[in-house]
Amino acid sequence: MNDNREAFLNAIAEKSGRPRHQLQDHPFQPLNDLPETTLAGKSPAELLALAKQNSEAVHVTFLTSAQADLPAALSAYLANQQPKTLLLPTDERLAQYGLSDWVKQVTPTPQYWVPGASREDNLNAAATADVAIGCADMLLAESGTITVATTPGQGRAFHFLPTHYLALVPASRIVPRSRQAMDYYDAELKAGRLTTSNINFITGPSNSGDIEMVLVVGVHGPLDMTYLVVTDA
Amino acid sequence: MAIAYSDKPFKVRLAESEQDTFMQKAVAKAQDAQWTKRTASRNELGHWEQWRELGQQIRQHVVRYLPDYLEEFADNAEKRGAHVYFARTDKEAAAYIRELAERKHVQHVVKSKSMVTTEIDLDQELLKIPGLSLLETDLAEFILQEDDWDEPTHIVFPTLHKNRDQIHEIFAKIGYKGDNDPQHMARFAREYLRASFLKADMGITGCNFAVADTGMVNLVTNEGNGDLTMAIPPTQVVVMGMERLVPSLKEAEVLDNMLARSAVGQKLTSYCSFSSVAATGESDGPTEYHIVIVDNGRMNALGGPFEEVLQCIRCGACLNVCPVYRHIGGHGYGSIYPGPIGAVLSPVLRGYKQFGDLPFASSLCGACTETCPVKIPLHSLLIKHREVMMNELHMDTGLNKVTYKALGLATGTPAIFHMGISVDHSMTALLSHHQEPTAQNYFMGDGIMSKLPFILGGWTVIRDMPRPPRAKDNFRSWFKQHKQLQEAGR
Hints:
CATH architecture of the domain at 65-296 in chain B: 3-Layer(aba) Sandwich
Number of domains of chain A: 1
Strand content of chain A: 15-25%
Radius of gyration of chain B: 26 Å
Number of helices of chain A: 8
Oligomer: heterodimer
Number of helices of chain B: 22
CATH topology of the domain at 65-296 in chain B: Rossmann fold
């Protein structure tokens, strides 16, 4: 704690005419439940359709595949992109998707974001990756957003430095909107089950309207994004 | 660049802005485009008024219990390994960061767009360090930096006043050889800045919301530069205004949705991130993390008539609906915070001697208040500024005061008022002249006045005043006659 903290906080209390340490008796209670009730009650099929519509609206290529067909779907994606370098996470979800054999034989030979490797090595792998295939935690139907929490095997820059990016996401983790995702992360963090330092909500490829308000897709982050929803996962 | 970036008098800035026809067209185009996008995204969400009430409630609750939320946030951020510094002034904040950069022997700084770092003039403070390189990485801020630190004109679209040819010229100076296509120029900036990101040893960001109960910092961007700034450099500095708190991730989620819709008409921005010090086992993200919480005049708003200005979430929607901003652009205001919010906030931060003109840069139409996602009564606060300023600076004891007193007497005394409206037509004969009727002046058949004396002169500097109609044709006479006819059943 630095010396000026108390003086600063006391000055606020004095200026506002309100004493400190009143919050515990007046915790925030939202006056409505719109964040929870908006888009509530949709069926899984409706959520998938909504996710597709809203993802495509933010320039995402939206694909679906059954888990059994996933290796073929990913190989087709790579055949189209023709990457010289491929980055994968060190993430047990790849095995859960049944991709253990596919990653051993895929071309180009993947580089990995490796837990315990140096900052330089992992950043270099991401910066030189033509394509990254990442594991997303959730997909938000309302906005076409994937969510990812940083892990030792899938770092922050994994999602930002590669040129092209594909996110794998299970259909069972499509939720109506950001509130459900936030409820999940909030509960996981507070229960100590999630120890991440960083959570990203990513809605399509990077973009800018800074030059004459003309939409430019692909600025600092990936130039394009693909979401591949695994329909039976 | 501090809060005020121009020493020129307000009227000189206005005159210059009036000459800038490209800027005026660009602002008009941007306002119209944003109107459509913003309205559509709010309508799609539904129940917008109730969302506004929730947004207002969150922000008012935070401001009410501000020291408690700051304490909670600082405790939780420190538990995660962050260093939290409270700065009362811009100079204190900038000096802290400069000393940190010197202590760490920082050579390459990358920054993502942040109004508060502009407010504390951080770039210039850091560039005093010999050999240090600093790059703004937001595309617009990068353009301004490469144009010899040109002034921003909008809090969300800082380069609104520049066209593609001007940007092409700026980029040509740093090696760009392509055409003026925005896509091509953006790709050039990507390549140019990528190298800087990879060698950066300090990253500096702003903060959209600091989350009290997790100690995390929420940043929303579209380009991805903010997240690279938070991922690559081992040292990161977050600079935030002292009011930018939310109780938990849930309230951040509410405000992020409202911010994206209000600022750019998106449901969420491309990147919406919540971050802190790199956790054990993670190989990127900052291992040294400093959060600088800045007062710099914000406390002036506490406990007084302007406290609601601290609810602001910096969406810029009020700029995008303001007819005055449409006419004079950001540079007319001379503050890094232009538009209605700037006209309220700038005098709070720096006083009336510097920004006393700004509360008058308003038509009081109320469009800003109506669009504000957190229900700041902006036009009422502008009126309040005028009142407080008159009292504080003991202004207007001369002719204007006499004129206002006379007007007050005339309009407050029925006999004088009725006499006035019975003779106003003939009394204004010498001041009036007639024009050929057009669609624009069709209802001004009694003539127009192009130059009026005293306080009324301000009106006729930029528009004509219709000559009052004859007493028998004025509204009161018409209404009286209409009422009689109505009562007679005709």
